[in-house]
Design goal:
The chain is mainly beta. Helix content is 10%, strand content 49%. Strands 1, 3, 4, 5, 6, 9 and 10 form a seven-stranded mixed β-sheet that branches.
Length: 164
């Protein structure tokens, strides 16, 4: 089952979109599992390492498979650092790429990002009344520019490409 998570913050100044699609060791907003039980989720450092190495991760608009913006490693750069899953892509000159650039420039989209994944390894724990899920290793299918996010600490920026 493909799971989706959303995250935050985009600024507009051009065609290069970059930032964090996921952050490490920071809580998600409250999520609900298939049984309707609430939990908080954390992404562990290294959770995306295999997917980055293997490539084939899509960058999409709002998790829509037909709304492709880029794909790793050709047009989507992905890496992990101390903060989280870092990305960079050049928005294509397609209708959707142009729409994303325009909506960010106008401030309609505010930089929220999301990611879709399949769990390879996780750990659940109880912290008082709170259920907590730690994502240890995931198969990252895609990252998405979204209007709303589950991880408010994520962000992206749009900046101009300068030619010399």
């Amino acid at each position: 089952m493909l799971e989706l998570r959303k995250a935050v913050e985009i600024r507009a100044e051009g065609r290069t979109l970059s930032g964090y699609a996921a952050v490490f060791d920071r809580p998600s907003l409250p999520l609900t599992d298939a049984r309707g039980r609430q939990f908080t989720e954390f992404v562990n450092r290294g959770a995306f390492a295999d997917s980055i190495r293997e490539g084939g991760v899509w960058a999409l608009w709002n998790h829509e498979r037909g709304e492709v913006l880029a794909r790793s490693p050709e047009t989507l750069a992905l890496s992990e650092d101390a903060v989280g899953l870092r990305f960079s892509l050049e928005l294509p000159g397609t209708t959707r790429g142009n729409d994303v650039a325009e909506l960010m420039t106008r401030g309609v989209l505010d930089g929220q990002m999301s990611f879709g994944f399949r769990v390879l390894e996780d750990r659940w724990e109880q912290r008082g009344d709170e259920r907590v899920r730690n994502l240890i290793r995931v198969d990252l299918a895609e990252i998405s520019v979204v209007p709303e996010a589950a991880y408010p600490q994520t962000n992206s920026q749009l900046r101009a490409v300068r030619s010399i």
